[in-house]
Amino acid sequence: MTPSGWGRGPAEQAYDRRAMVPTVVHIGPGVFHRAHQAVYADTVLGTGSRAGAVRAVSLRSSRTRDALAPQGFRYCLLERGDGGTRTRVIGSIAEILDGNSPPAMAALTDPAVTVVTITVTEHGYAATGPGGGLDVTRAEVAHDIAHPQAPHSMPGLLVEALRRRRLAGAAPFTVASCDNLPSNGAATRRVVTELAAHHGDALAGWITANVAFPSSMVDRMVPATTDADRARLQSATGVDDAWPVVAEPFSQWVLEDTFPAGRPPWERAGVELVSDVEPYERAKLRILNGAHSALAYLGLLAGHREIGQAATDPRLSAFVADLLAEEVLPTLTPPPGWDLPAYAAQVLARFSNRALPYTTAKVAADGAQKVPVRVLSTVAERLAAGAGTDRLARVVAAWIACVLGPRSVSFAVADPGLRDLLGSAVAPAHDPAAAVDRMLALPTVFGREHTGHPRFTAQVHRHARELWTAGV
């Protein structure tokens, strides 16, 4: 069964899907993966490569699988910019599997699979903080320690698959994180090997010695798909797609080229293969992701529902431009070939794309995981250098106002990590000073380099008082 209209609208694949070979398993087939890594895979397959197709594994929900299965796991990518919309059918995903199922484990232990890629968001790493150690207090981690052969977490799934490959004498796959974490390869290695150690030093040692965890930097803005998107697609093309994805025209993937077991020829699709991702990753996290969070929190407080509205608000755009120029760019070394001021200007222009309905509440979500790497790492470096942090402190105060302020219920910013850290329901606070103190006391979010600096903490308190009820 295929959806009505397929074949009459957007062009089908320039390759025979029956001949494609799934050599990649992807964990977390949300909209970002389907607008990013799966698109690169589709392009590679279109060059004549049979290898590089994807089996996807979902740990959270069967919704994506159920929506796309009747379509043969094909879907439409809608690239929206000021010049209009370009529609393309993506066919690189062979199937989507339930992460807690035998077929998912069979896919991960298939000797033909040489690479596992990951997009599970920061929260999915089951770590004590961004890039931190394994959080053994998490329910899914406790389950995987007690029941390793029926894993619930991303680290648990990888550990069990690697254990079975080792027992079978099969070569291990390479694990490539594509989430916005600093040193995401090392972050993945840490939680995987720490969980493996609970099942014996031999397995953990084998993983350390034999499994590669290259880091990567990924960049594309991908808002959630809406019913209006589906209706517009059907009206324009006649295609009835249960779950298309919407993205900006821009896309980038910088990847450490460390794949002992082999990999698809991603360079054919424009993937930048480098020896060290760190300078690219740092620049992207602090400029693009930091600015994105700033616009989300300040935009919510200013009454903007979408990022495009916040980015075209003269007050907010001027503030973020100054934030980047005065407090963020001085902390960065340009990656090879990059002009950082030009990159910052390009980022702000991309945020202004009003054709991309990226909601401020969505970008503001998961701040307990995002703010430390996007904002607080820059704060720490500025404080160590004796440099100013007033604009950065305003972003931190805006985050606190959005999640604990009197209007937080109406903002409905999802942050399960913060709820776990606070140990109780996140309820609005009428006293900004108490709310700031409560947040500053979270050691996995704020380090001693922040809380031990009176100037920075005073700045956060001052901005919180201003933002608590008055807005931006």
Overview of the molecule:
With 472 residues, this protein is α/β, with parallel strands linked by helices. Helices cover 47% and strands 12% of the residues. The chain has helices at 31-35, 37-46, 63-68, 102-108, 139-146, 154-168, 184-197, 201-210, 227-237, 278-301, 307-311, 314-328, 340-351, 360-364, 367-384, 390-404, 408-411, 416-422, 432-440, 448-451, 454-470; strands spanning 21-27, 51-58, 75-81, 84-90, 93-98, 115-118, 174-177, 216-219, 245-247, 252-256, 272-274. A hairpin with a 2-residue loop joins strand 3 (75-81) and strand 4 (84-90). Helix 7 packs antiparallel against helix 8 (201-210) and helix 10 packs across helix 16 (390-404). The model has no long low-confidence stretch (mean pLDDT 94).
Concise structural overview:
This protein is of the alpha/beta class. It has 21 helices and 11 strands. A 5-stranded parallel beta sheet has the order 5-2-1-6-7.
**How many runs of DSSP E, i.e. beta strands?**
11
Radius of gyration: 22 Å
Task: Tell me the span between the first and last alpha carbons.
Answer: 52 Å
Largest sheet: 5 strands, parallel
Mean pLDDT: 94
Contiguous runs where pLDDT drops below 50 for at least 5 residues: none
Strands across the major sheet, in which order? Answer: 5-2-1-6-7
Number of H/I helices: 21
Strand content: 5-15%
